[in-house]
Amino acid sequence: MKVGLFIPCYINAIYPEVGRASCELLRRVGCEVDYPLDQTCCGQPMANAGFERDARAMAERMNALFDKYDYVVGPSASCVVFVREGYPHLLKDYREHACVDARIWEICEFLHDVVKPARLDARFPHKVSLHNSCHGVRRMDLSSPSELHVPYHSKLRDLLAMVDGIEVAEPERRDECCGFGGMFSAEEGAVSVAMGRAKVSRHMATGAEYITGADSSCLMHMQGVIDHDKLPIKTIHIVEILNSSL
Fold first, then answer.
1. Residue ranges of the domains in the chain?
2. d(CA 79, CA 59)
3. Topology annotation, domain 122-242
4. Are 34 and 61 in contact (CB under 8 A)?
5. Whole-model pTM?
6. What average pLDDT does the structure give for the chain?
7. Percentage of residues in the chain with pLDDT exceeding 70?
8. Burial of 101 (0-12, 13-18, 19+ CB in 10 A)
């Protein structure tokens, strides 16, 4: 399968190791991966701030750039959700079969639902606390929302179960927001930080060495709390664990 790798702008700028791990992991499970060098922001920050005209230009560019791929895969639930749900409203003369939103996947759901690897040949001998990001849980079904009172499932946990040596825990209130929320963290800084501290403390209560999840934005927010308060825990994106070599 031919995959166009979509790396969100903040990952490209701040967490390039997540982009590299995503590319390597997809190739390890048998995908033909291409990384279009001309890609830019998907347009989510502009759209969230109310600048739809600017967001539309980004959407048109991304739609054209990724047109030739069978699948478009990215390591960010929030960006992928924006493309899926936002592009049909932003793009002119929208036709579903011709648009990238019909072919875009978050990397963990792509591995879990499309590739379905029997094994990953990965090793990570550490205890991790699994972070469920809001977009991944409630807009992408990466795990089941607690408020629905349905049987619990987690695609992230299923993938981590293939990693040798790992111990996976989940915090109390496992799908409660960490406080990042994109524009929310800028507009409501004090509330955002308080939520982040509460979330990190619950992850630490599991006894984990690392907090892991599928959204670098959430991990970045919590790492800011960790660094500021000098806490004995670290964050790591799930693709870095899944790509860790035996």
1. 2-115, 122-242
2. 12
3. Rossmann fold (3.40.50)
4. no
5. 0.92
6. 92
7. 98
8. buried
